[in-house]
Protein: Enoyl-CoA delta isomerase 1, mitochondrial
Organism: Nesidiocoris tenuis
Amino acid sequence: MNRPPVNSLNTEHLEQLHRALVRLENEKCRGMILSSSSPTVFSAGLDIREMYKPELEKARKFWRTLQDMWLKLYSTPYPTVAAIHGHAPAGGCLLALSCEYRVIVPNVKIGLNETQLGIVAPQWFQDCMRNVIGERQAEKALIAGHMFNTEQALQVGLVDEVAADKAACIARAEAFLASQANLPLLARKTVKLGFRNSTLSRLMTGREADTKIFIEYIFQPKVQKGIELYLQSLSKKSG
Ligand SMILES: CCCCCCCC/C=C\C=C\CC(=O)SCCNC(=O)CCNC(=O)[C@H](O)C(C)(C)COP(=O)(O)OP(=O)(O)OC[C@H]1O[C@@H](n2cnc3c(N)ncnc32)[C@H](O)[C@@H]1OP(=O)(O)O
């Protein structure tokens, strides 16, 4: 990902990611490392500006593009690793959770923090967390909107490994891909999809309902007010 300063996910960036995933699949890619050009941020999650006073059709397109990208990422036939050498809140955490393996560096915060922002992580975000860390830990983390530090993320199983820095993180991600390289492709892909199918189907069969929930939620005046205040707090911080 290379969308400075924080790889926030707007419609255009989501489309780029989606196109890249389609291309990798068409080219029979043998593995992907999802990484960031930023030295300190993996992805800041959804671009909050896409949800602030949007036009209805633009908001719908934004959400459908996010759904398209995630459906592709979660179901890739090739192995995927997230090299998390920077913070990964909310949608950034979703990207990492959607890969098959996660390597993180020290001093990083990762989690589905939506509750803390006064919004609700969509059901499929929650499913991804549950699938990785289990029901009990996911429920606790999501209710609190908890951001895990590196040690906590390792302990709870949100990530698989800690590496010292970006170079080591990429090297460990490559080692994971190498460990998968000799597995029969069809068997590997079938098992992966078997595990992920119910989560994928839940969104695929309820896409329109999911979009409607998103639209109705973000168009509420009190939610818009919350987004406005949050945007102000973010830009004050950097100002
Ligand atoms: C009943 C059922 C209802 C279901 C309803 C479903 C509704 C679901 C709706 C939404 C779901 C949303 C999921 C999300 O992903 S929301 C996004 C959450 N993300 C965050 O909270 C992260 C916010 N950012 C940060 O914490 C930091 O920026 C960090 C990533 C840690 C990086 O810190 P730092 O390096 O110090 O950078 P700055 O904070 O100074 O930021 C630099 C500039 O980038 C802007 N920024 C940051 N994050 C975002 C973002 N997510 N979107 C847009 N812009 C962002 C920030 O304002 C700075 O901009 P500027 O320099 O112009 O001031």
About this structure: The chain has a mean pLDDT of 96. Residues 5-6, 8, 40-41, 44-49, 87, 89-91, 113-114, 117, 119-120, 122, 213-214, 217, 234-235, 237-238 surround L434P2JQ (CB under 6 Å). The first strand starts at residue 32 and ends at 34.
